[in-house]
Amino acid sequence: MRHVLSWIREKDEAMFHSFFAAHSGVALENARRRQGTLDAMDGLLLTGGADICPAYLHQPVSPAELGLIEEDAEADRDGFEFAAIQTALEHGVPILTVCKGAQVLNVALGGTLHLDIPGHDLPEMKSHNIQTLRFAANPTIRFERVNSSHHQAIDRLGDGLEVEAWCAADGVIEQVRLKNHPYVFGVQFHPERDSSYTPLFEQFIDKVDSTQC
User: Fold this and answer.
1) Which of 29, 74, 99, 174 is catalytic?
2) Could you tell me where the DSSP H helices lie in 21-153?
3) CA atoms of 197 and 140, how far apart (whole Å)
4) Residue 53 catalytic?
5) 34: pLDDT confidence band, cut at 50, 70 and 90?
6) Which of 19, 64, 65, 121 is most buried as measured by Cβ atoms within 10 A of its Cβ?
7) H-helix or E-strand spanning residue 153
């Protein structure tokens, strides 16, 4: 049995589990319910959630910017996720990151964030694939329109990250991968909310199933 470790909000749990249900050899474990052993994970999935606690950011945060950061930040979750990324990178474990998860990945690699951006958290963006992307050459996977919903985004890239896709309207980064690693991939949109993104989860699960960690 392969084990994918994650930390998933209660409201998102059923959606993520639905993509793993058909794979009896790969189990998705939610560390929000029970802390898993980092050294025993075969894959790492970082999902959406509250803004990263300012103490983890590699950038100055002004009082005005501090007021824009969501008040429900979770220090315990952030501590777990930053430690999990470090362990996964050291062991060559496949990593898939979604929304906040992509931001955590970027910060863990020394990057910075736009702490508040306009026009990316409209109600219709939460579940409808209406945002058009533009792509770099040879993206890991391609979705022409996505359901991106967020108020923060990647600014300066972390070490080794490269951009695969941007919002076509304003250039906000929407898809990244880590160079020189078997599989570390991040999207700013929400693939858990739509079955049309099944190929992304299948790709990740296949990497977990085939990687010798």
Assistant:
1) 99
2) 63-66, 75-91, 100-108
3) 13
4) no
5) confident
6) 19
7) strand 153-154
